[in-house]
Amino acid sequence: MKLLVAALESELVAFSEPLDGFDRLVTGPGKLKATYGLTRALDAGAYDEIVVVGTAGALDETIGSGVHEIHWAFQHDVINEEGVRGEHVSMPQRIELGAGDVSIATGDSFIDDAEAVELILSLGGRLVDMESYAYAWVAAQFGVPIRIWKAVSDNAKGGANITWEEAVTDCSHRLREHMREVYGV
Q: SUPFAM superfamilies of this UniProt entry (predicted)?
C-alpha cells in the first residue's frame, strides 16, 4: 500500500475517487502540521511508498509550469548558531530524494518579494513551499521511500493573473494526470 499525501484538500480536487493501492492523507499546511500528520499516519500503518502531491511557487525563472519531481529539499527559514541561513542547528541541511537539480525550499511563510526570492535562490532553491522538507524528513525517520511532485501554482515574486482557487485546481488536474501516467491509476 502507498500513501498519497497533500497539505490541502484543494490540492486533491482532481483526485475525487479513491486510487487503487493508495491511502490518502491531508496534513494541513506548514512544517509542523506536515510533520505531525505524516508521523501519525506512518505510526498507524505500514506503507511501501509515500507520494506527495501539491503546489509550489517558482523562484527560478527557467523552471517550467509542469509537474516537477523534487530531488532535494531544504529549509530556507532556519539559521544555525553561526548565523548561517538555510542551516538548522540539529537537522540535516538538505535531504536528497533523487538524482537531479529540482530543489525545493521549505519555510513557514509565503514568499512574495524579490529580496526573499533572491536570498532563497542564493541557497539553491528553485521552487518554494511550506511542507516538502518536513515530509522528506519524516519519511527518512521511518525508512519509507518518498516521491514529491509539485505543480507550479505561481511565481513567488507575485504578479499572479489568476485566483488561488483557479491555480490550485489547475495544478491538481496536472498532478492527477501525472499520477495516471506514472502509476496507471
A: Purine and uridine phosphorylases
